[in-house]
Write a structure and sequence with these properties.
With 174 residues, the chain is mainly alpha-helical. It has two domains: 84 residues, no CATH class; 64 residues, no CATH class. The protein has five helices and no strands. This is C4-dicarboxylate ABC transporter. It comes from Thalassobacterium maritimum.
Length: 174
């Protein structure tokens, strides 16, 4: 499993030596970020979390690695005098889908593990906790995805006065 990020890093790294482009910078840093996310998940789970909290450790690892990926990629862009075109330059809807999926799995795992049914509250039926453990994480993950994707694709005017949103009407030039 760790062979795939290594092959990606090698592919983009060799391409980066030939010519520095935005895609190659994002690809090589992204492949290293995948390695970092897996290692961070292992260490977070081992030292900070209780046993069997795999999804939560991956979510925490993503929360650490994704901003680090954006920071390193931006620094490399600036060092190569490449222009950052907008908010969605580094984080697309694919990574937001992955994070929303991790939020859903982590919250489902949390409710399943810590529901009061297991602590001896027998007067509460198990079905409401099953429903809550299924519906609430989906709603929270969906809300995260919608809010984050709207924030990333929001119309933004850059320094040149050009609107970066393709759905926005062209500016009036009189």
């Amino acid at each position: 499993m760790m062979l795939i990020p290594g092959a990606m890093a090698l592919f983009y790294g060799i391409g980066l030596l030939k010519e520095v482009t935005k895609e190659r910078i994002k690809g090589s840093v992204g492949a290293l970020a995948i390695f970092g996310a897996f290692w961070a998940a292992v260490y977070v789970e081992k030292f900070l979390l209780p046993e069997n909290s795999n999804m939560l450790s991956l979510l925490i690892a993503l929360a650490i690695i994704v901003p680090l990926y954006v920071f390193i990629s931006k620094r490399l862009y600036y060092s190569e005098q490449l222009e950052v075109s907008g908010r969605g330059e580094f984080i697309g809807k694919g990574i937001l889908t992955l994070i929303a999926w991790m939020i859903w799995l982590s919250l489902s795992e949390f409710v399943r593990e810590y529901a009061p049914v297991k602590e001896g509250y027998t007067h509460i039926k198990e079905e409401p906790w099953d429903t809550l453990g299924f519906i609430a994480p989906i709603i929270i993950a969906w809300a995260f995805y919608k809010i984050a994707s709207k924030a990333l694709t929001k119309s933004k005017v850059d320094q040149g006065g050009i609107v970066n949103d393709i759905t926005a009407p062209p500016p009036c030039r009189d």
